[in-house]
Design goal:
9 strands; globular
C-alpha cells in the first residue's frame, strides 16, 4: 500500500498559538517538525504541543532558538502518532518570528 506523505507549513507565527496540523478522520504519523527563527534581530523561544480533548501535551516548551537558527524536534527515525481529533499547535515568544514545517504520513494503518 502506498503511503500518503504530506507537509504543512506555517509562516510568521507569533505569540498566539496556531494549529499546524489536525488529524481529522484517521491516525497520522508525524515524521518531522522543524521550527525556524525568522525574526531579524531577536532570539525566540517556542512551544510545540499536542492538543487532545482540551488538554495540551508538550513536545517541547520554551525551547530557545537563536536568530537565524532552527530546531529539529523529531529525528533519528522517531515518530509521533496523532489520533483522529488530535492537533499540533505551535507558538513563539515573539510576534511574527516562527516558521514551522511539519512532515507526516496521512492515514496510517
Amino acid at each position: 500500500m502506498a503511503q500518503d506523505f504530506e507537509r504543512h507549513i506555517d509562516r510568521n507565527t507569533g505569540t498566539g498559538a496556531v494549529t499546524a496540523v489536525a488529524a481529522a478522520n484517521s491516525d497520522d504519523a508525524i515524521v518531522g517538525i522543524r521550527c525556524a527563527n525568522v525574526h531579524a534581530s531577536s532570539p525566540i523561544s517556542v512551544d510545540v504541543y499536542i492538543v487532545n480533548g482540551g488538554n495540551n501535551y508538550y513536545i517541547i516548551k520554551g525551547a530557545p532558538i537563536p536568530v537565524g537558527s532552527s530546531l529539529e524536534l523529531i529525528d533519528g527515525g522517531s515518530k509521533i502518532v496523532l489520533q483522529s481529533g488530535d492537533a499540533i499547535a505551535v507558538k513563539s515568544s515573539v510576534a511574527s518570528s516562527l516558521d514551522t514545517v511539519i512532515s507526516l504520513v496521512d492515514a496510517i494503518s
